[in-house]
Amino acid sequence: MVTGALAAAGFAASALLPARPAFASEQLTIISWGGSYQDVQLRKSFFEPFTKATGIKITEDQWNGEVSKVRAMVQTNTVNWDVLDVGVGIGELCSHGLVETLNWNRLGLDRTKFLGDDKTLECGVPHHASSTVVAYDRTKLKNGPKTIADFFDLQKFPGKRAMRKGPGSNLEWALVADGVLIKDVYKVLATPAGVDRAFKKLDTIKKDVIWWTAGSQPAQLLGNGQVVMSTAWSGSIENAVKESRLPLEIMWDAQMLSLDFWVIPKGAPHLDEAYKFLAFGGSPKPQADMTRYGNNGPANKDGMVLVDPAVRPNLTTAPDHMTNSLEFDYSFWGDKTDELNQRFTAWVAQ
Question: pLDDT at position 115, please?
C-alpha cells in the first residue's frame, strides 16, 4: 500500500533525484501563518524537502489571512507572492477570482484522493486537516472545560479567555453554546436572526476576551497565565506541548474541522515553480511527515498509510475527535465573509 501511495503522489520522478542547481528564476515566495506551525511543521515537512528535491529556493513570509492584501496585489498587477497557505479564506479567494483555477492534470494529482468539496478543489490543493479547539492549562484548571458551553460560562470558569480576532469559528461556537445543534449551525447562521443570536451570546463574554491574531499567541497567553482558556489551532497547541513542555490540554468538543490549502494568487510571478510546489505539497509523503510535528491529519487520503500507527489516534481526524466535530463551511464563508467581517469589526470596536 505504501508503494501505491507513493505512486499516487503525482510529483514528478525528479523529486526523488538529488537536487540540481536552480536557475535564478527558479524561486518561490510562500506565505503562511507563522509560529511553530510554519517554523517547524511546514519547513521540515514541505519547504526543506522540496528545495532539496528540486533545487528551487523558497523565501518565506507570514500573513494573517487578509484577503484584502491579495485583492490589492491582483487588481494593481503587483503580485509578488507565489503560493499562499490559506484556510477559511479560500471560499472568498475562489469566488472573487483572486487565485488561479488549477489544472489538476498539470499537477499530476488525483483530486478524488483529497478531502474537500469540488468548489474549493478548483483553486486549492489541501495539505492537511486541522481544527480550531479550546485549550487550557491543566495545572491551573484541574477540572477543565468539557463542552463549548463551558467556554462561555464565566461563573463556572471565571477569568479571561482568548479568541481569534475574527468571526469565523466564534460565531458558530456561540450558537452551539446557545443550544443550536451542530447539524443546524449554518442553517441558523444563514439568517439575520441567527447572526444576532450569535453576537448576543458573544456579548456575554466580550469584556473577558483577549483577542489573538497569530497562531503562536494562544500558547503564550495560556503559558503566562493571562487567560484561563483559549481558542487555538490544535496543531500549535500540540507543538507547544512537545517543544516547550507546556502543560496544555485540548478540549475536543465541537472542534471546528477545516482544511488548509496551497493556492496560487492570480498573476504569481513564478507560476511554473508554484505548480511544482503544489504537486509536491499535495503528495502523500510530506503530508504524512507533517504528523511527526503536530496533530494535523493528511488531506490526501493516501497519506494515512504512511503515518506512524502510534500517532494516528492523536490526529484531528481520529475517530474519537470526530464524534461531535463541526465542519467549516467554505461556501457559506465565501458568500458571507465581507458582511460578517464588517459586523464583527464594528462589534469589537463598540
Answer: 84
